[in-house]
């Protein structure tokens, strides 16, 4: 039986930490979860497999999408895939980390945008 309150949710940084737990929780809650993981079939295949196995062991599904927040092209492709398959995105959870070390005043806007 389909969840009448099912939302289509795109989560960045879903390979570990809070993003992973959020993806698991929402998928088990009956939502259509698209879990953004950078290079999910390559260097992060273990993260993709871990998430898929956990969700499938609970009788649910999650869709893994290749999503690198540092690449506009990657972000656009991930969104296009979700829209193509679902028709819309109801919720975006931007969880992927941006790491800056130092005083924010020391960075130029270009440096912040490129990291």
Structure write-up:
By secondary structure, the protein is of the alpha/beta class. The chain has one domain (8-114): NAD(P)-binding Rossmann-like Domain (Rossmann fold), CATH 3.40.50. The chain is 40% helix and 17% strand. It is globular and about 50 Å long. The mean pLDDT is 90.
Shape: globular
If you consult CATH, what is the topology?
Rossmann fold
Tell me the number of helical segments per DSSP (H or I, 4 or more residues long).
4
* Count of individual domains: 1
Give average pLDDT, whole number: 90
H/E topology pattern: EHEHEHEH
Number of strands: 4
Main attributes of the structure:
115 residues; alpha/beta; Rossmann fold; 4-stranded parallel beta sheet; 40% helix; globular
């Amino acid at each position: 039986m389909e969840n009448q309150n099912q939302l289509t949710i795109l989560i960045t940084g879903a390979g570990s930490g809070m993003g992973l737990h959020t993806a698991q929780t929402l998928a088990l809650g009956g939502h259509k979860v698209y879990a953004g993981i950078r290079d999910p079939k390559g260097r992060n295949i273990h993260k993709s497999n871990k998430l898929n196995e956990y969700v499938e062991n609970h009788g649910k599904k999650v869709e893994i999408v290749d999503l690198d927040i540092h690449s506009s092209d990657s972000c656009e492709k991930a969104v296009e895939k979700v829209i193509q398959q679902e028709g819309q995105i109801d919720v975006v959870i931007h969880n992927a980390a941006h790491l800056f070390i130092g005083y924010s005043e020391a960075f130029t806007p270009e440096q912040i945008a490129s990291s």
